[in-house]
Amino acid sequence: MAMRKEVLLAAMMLALVVAAPGGARAACEMGQLTVCMPAITTGAKPSGACCANLRAQQACFCEYAKDPSLGAYIRSPHASETLVSCGLAVPHC
């Protein structure tokens, strides 16, 4: 079941990257967060690469949380735990 969630999340992230409009901010690249999938979906400890990418994407968290296809993942308890583990504040959107 967890593997199915990871595959679904990866597919959604890829679709967002491919379908992003040309006017979208270059800094918001959801695909950079695929390295965080184990932490966000299972609560595993985030890797250094995950934390670095989260820092780079921090300004985009509220935008991602408002996306109907991603919001449940972004607002999940594991996502909040991942942010805290990386030393980042949990946004209040």
From TrEMBL:
<dbReference type="GO" id="GO:0006869">
    <property type="term" value="P:lipid transport"/>
</dbReference>
<feature type="domain" description="Bifunctional inhibitor/plant lipid transfer protein/seed storage helical">
    <location>
        <begin position="28"/>
        <end position="93"/>
    </location>
</feature>
<dbReference type="GO" id="GO:0008289">
    <property type="term" value="F:lipid binding"/>
</dbReference>
<dbReference type="InterPro" id="IPR016140">
    <property type="entry name" value="Bifunc_inhib/LTP/seed_store"/>
</dbReference>
<keyword id="KW-0446">Lipid-binding</keyword>
<keyword id="KW-0813">Transport</keyword>
<dbReference type="InterPro" id="IPR033872">
    <property type="entry name" value="nsLTP2"/>
</dbReference>
<protein>
    <recommendedName>
        <fullName>Bifunctional inhibitor/plant lipid transfer protein/seed storage helical domain-containing protein</fullName>
    </recommendedName>
</protein>
<dbReference type="InterPro" id="IPR036312">
    <property type="entry name" value="Bifun_inhib/LTP/seed_sf"/>
</dbReference>
<dbReference type="Pfam" id="PF00234">
    <property type="entry name" value="Tryp_alpha_amyl"/>
</dbReference>
<comment type="similarity">
    <text>Belongs to the plant LTP family. B11E subfamily.</text>
</comment>
<feature type="signal peptide">
    <location>
        <begin position="1"/>
        <end position="26"/>
    </location>
</feature>
<keyword id="KW-0732">Signal</keyword>
